[in-house]
Design goal:
- With about 260 residues, the protein is α/β, with parallel strands linked by helices.
- The termini are far apart.
- It is built from eleven helices and seven strands.
- Helices cover about 45% and strands about 10% of the residues.
- A four-stranded parallel sheet has the order 3-2-6-7, with helices on both faces.
- The relative contact order is 0.16.
C-alpha cells in the first residue's frame, strides 16, 4: 500500500469511528435537527479523501462543521456543489438509507443536485483556484478538514455551530472530535495548521498546538462582513499565510 493510499484509508477509518461514536450523543434545545453528512454522503467524502489527501501536503486548513449548502450536501469541507463537480471532478450519489429520519423542510438534502451556492466554499475554493489553478496542484500543497462532522439546526432551520452548544453535550462532542483531529495531525505532521475562524483556531491551539505551529485566518462565512474582500484577493490571504509562517520561522512555498 502506497503512503498516499495508507494515509487516506487511515483518515477514513478514524472519521468512520468518530461518526459512530457521535451517534449516541443527544443535543438539547435549541438543537432540533441534526445531520451527519459523513454517513449519507460517505461515497463522495471517500472520493475526496482518497483523491486529495496527499503525502506531499504540508499545510492543513481546519474548518468548524458542515455548512447547509456545502458539506451537508456533498460530504466535503466547504463543498459548494459547483466546485465539487467542476474543480474536484467528483461525482456520486447519496446513501439514501443513511439520510436523517427528520429533515427540516427549509434544509433539504439534495446532494450534488442542490441548486444553492455555499458562499463560504465559493470564497475559500475560489481563492485556492486563483493560486493553484487545478485541484491537484492545491492538494499537493495543503489539505482541508472540518473539525466536527455534524450539522445542527434549530426548529426554524437556523444553523447552530458547535461553539453555540452548551453543557455536557458540547464537551462530549468536542472530546470525540479532538481525538480524530489529533490522529490526523499526528499522521500528517503538517508544518503549519490554520484554523478558519476563532473557534477552529482555539481548538487547534488546545488540541495540536504542542505538535505543530497554529495560526488563524478569517472564516470565509457570509456572516463575517470582512470575509468577502479578504478572500477575493489571492495576495491578501497568501501574504497573511506567509507572515504567520515567518513569525514562526517557517518557510513555505506559494505559487507567487
Amino acid at each position: 500500500m502506497s503512503s498516499s493510499t495508507q494515509g487516506a484509508e487511515r483518515l477514513l477509518e478514524w472519521e468512520s469511528t468518530l461518526v459512530k461514536d457521535l451517534r449516541s450523543l443527544r443535543f438539547p434545545p435549541p438543537v432540533s435537527y441534526q445531520y451527519s453528512p459523513l454517513e449519507y454522503a460517505w461515497p463522495l467524502h471517500q472520493e475526496y479523501v482518497r483523491r486529495y489527501f496527499l503525502p506531499t501536503a504540508r499545510i492543513l486548513f481546519v474548518g468548524m462543521n458542515p455548512g447547509p449548502f456545502g458539506m451537508v450536501q456533498s460530504g466535503i469541507p466547504f463543498g459548494d456543489v459547483t466546485t465539487v463537480k467542476d474543480w474536484f471532478h467528483i461525482r456520486g450519489e447519496l446513501r439514501k438509507e443513511a439520510l436523517p429520519k427528520q429533515v427540516h423542510p427549509k434544509r433539504p438534502i439534495l446532494g450534488l443536485l442542490c441548486p444553492r451556492k455555499e458562499v463560504s466554499g465559493q470564497r475559500f475554493w475560489g481563492w485556492a483556484r486563483q493560486g493553484w489553478t487545478t485541484s491537484e496542484n492545491f492538494f499537493s500543497w495543503a489539505f482541508v478538514y472540518n473539525y466536527c462532522p455534524l450539522s445542527f439546526m434549530s426548529s426554524s432551520g437556523k444553523n447552530i455551530t458547535p461553539d453555540q452548544l452548551r453543557g455536557k453535550s458540547q464537551s462530549e462532542l468536542l472530546d470525540r472530535c479532538n481525538i480524530c483531529l489529533l490522529q490526523l495531525v499526528d499522521w500528517m505532521r503538517p508544518v503549519f495548521v490554520f484554523g478558519l475562524g476563532k473557534f477552529s483556531y482555539q481548538v487547534c491551539c488546545d488540541v495540536i498546538g504542542h505538535i505543530c505551529a497554529v495560526g488563524m485566518l478569517p472564516h470565509p462565512s457570509p456572516a463575517n462582513p470582512k470575509s468577502s474582500r479578504y478572500w477575493s484577493q489571492w495576495s491578501t490571504v497568501a501574504n497573511d499565510i506567509r507572515e504567520q509562517c515567518r513569525q514562526q520561522n517557517i518557510h513555505i512555498e506559494l505559487p507567487y
